Amino acid sequence: MKEFIKNFSEKVQTSLKNLPEEEIAKALNILEAAYERDGRIYIFGNGGSMALATHWVCDFNKTVFSHNLDKHHRRFQAIRVPTTDEELTAWANDVGFDMVFVGPLKNYLQDGDAIIAISSSGNSPNIIKAVELAKERKVSVIGISGFEVSNKLNQLADAKIFIPAEKGDYFLVEGIHGIILHMMVRYFKDYFDHLIEREPKNDF
Amino acid sequence: MIVVRAPLRISFVGGGTDLPDFYHRRPGRVISTAIDKFVYVVVNRTPMIDRVTARYSITESVEKLEDLKHTRIRAALASFNINKSIEISSFASMPSKTGLGSSSSFSVALIKALNAFQGKKVDAGEAAEAASHLEIHLVGEPIGKQDQYAASFGGFNVIQFNPDESVNVTPVLIDYKKKLLLQDSLLLFYTGITRAASSVLTEQKANIDSKLQTLSEMADSVPEFAERVMRGDINGLGAMLHQGWLKKKSLASNVSNSTIDDLYNAGIDSGAWGGKILGAGGGGCVLFICPTDKKDLIRESVKKIASEKNLNEFREIPIKFVQSGTEVLYNGDQFQAPIA
């Protein structure tokens, strides 16, 4: 049992030591730009990645500002798509499962928005369809993927957050994805707290 | 109606190496950041009015596009094959000709707005390229293309101009602490002296052959500047800015003048680590990099010089760096392409 735990932990550590720092930095810039122009950030994924997406929306919209909830003139507008289970099942049942993200996204997506697509394989057809819509509309794409560097999401994304792993090791890839998403929350929480500390009378 | 916003920029080193006479021989390079001062372009469809109307410092309304006096709007509309039923206005948070790149910010915003008007989307690179083409080839201005790329992409970037006309935009990935540290160490003053970049650049262009070595050194210093930005070596950045300014002054006789020299020297004598004139030169804005505790002293001494020289428009411009580039903020045009 201990050996299994040690092996898994070593894989996680290796992965964490080799995070794609530049690509994460680019993603932070994309998020900051969307904030400045009052754009919205749409995030989506399948299965466990959908749970990561929803968790991140909660943290990004609320936890980032939790020390100073009323001191910033606006907050992030992160939205998970689809926003309701009803839309998800309607698109899947009536049109096709490949439409569950791109269908609802078409209702919302505007110039100045950004998207975060999470797919461990980077090849889920429904994810790629939504990413292709964003690319067509010249909306910035943060791609969070894993396994093979040649995956489609990694090819299409503007910020290519890719975690190399043995094919099928969702446990490692999704775990690291979760850490990176939390890192983004932490970065902006520190940043916005810092702005308030240095100029408490200003709002941002 | 379509509303597009483009940021102005401050450039640190490498200005002048974005002129084709230079980068056709050796790659040019600049480092600059977008700031929280903006140019807005509004485009409105007027299906019931066949005229072309442009509202800027004056209002023009013409029946025939070729009668429009505003050269860039006229050339841009012609290139989009639009010759009636359109109204274009511009708004800005700064006067023009300040050396903050506002004329190119206008062009990028215009290009993005006219694309949106025709139901097309363009990315930052395409918009910058089209704006450069508009200003340099269609209008024939003797300018470079750093400002179009700075405005279109936004953020803090190293921009490289290659002999084959391609351009690489590499973001300088600094965290908020270093960004704010640099931002806090800058002082920007509008001199109140305006000039068109083209007047200075025409002479600079003629001198390129003899100044090739100086320009190469300026382009080559850009990676080191970027590295110091990443390290947060503000003092070193000041020294590099000072060296860059001395080099830039040697490029053309009208880059500086005695008023600008006096303002610059007053800042340095009061403790600034370095500085420069923003834009092609001859007027515009003065930028200093300085220790934060020297800011008040520098403010006092440059204001004294400005008042002695009767620079009535002289004032400090508080700035913040921004990450966003040229964006369509609102698109309520009823003739947009359908969703599918």
Automatic annotation (TrEMBL), chain A:
BP GO annotations: carbohydrate derivative metabolic process
Pfam families the record matches: SIS_2
Signal sequence, renumbered to the chain: none
Domain spans labelled SIS: 31-189
GO molecular function: carbohydrate derivative binding
InterPro entries membership: GmhA/DiaA, SIS_dom, SIS_dom_sf, SIS_GmhA/DiaA_subfam
This protein's name: SIS domain-containing protein
Taxon lineage: Bacteria, Candidatus Woykeibacteriota
Automatic annotation (TrEMBL), chain B:
Domain GHMP kinase C-terminal: 229-304
Highest taxon in the source lineage: Bacteria
GO molecular function, one term: ATP binding
UniProtKB keywords: ATP-binding, Kinase, Nucleotide-binding, Transferase
All copies of domain GHMP kinase N-terminal, residue ranges: 79-155
Keyword Flavoprotein among record annotations: no
Pfam family, one: GHMP_kinases_N
One GO term (biological process): GDP-L-fucose salvage
InterPro entries: GHMP_Kinase-Related, GHMP_kinase_C_dom, GHMP_kinase_C_sf, GHMP_kinase_N_dom, HddA/FKP, Heptose_7-P_kinase, Ribosomal_Su5_D2-typ_SF
Family: Belongs to the GHMP kinase family.
Name recorded for this polypeptide: GHMP kinase
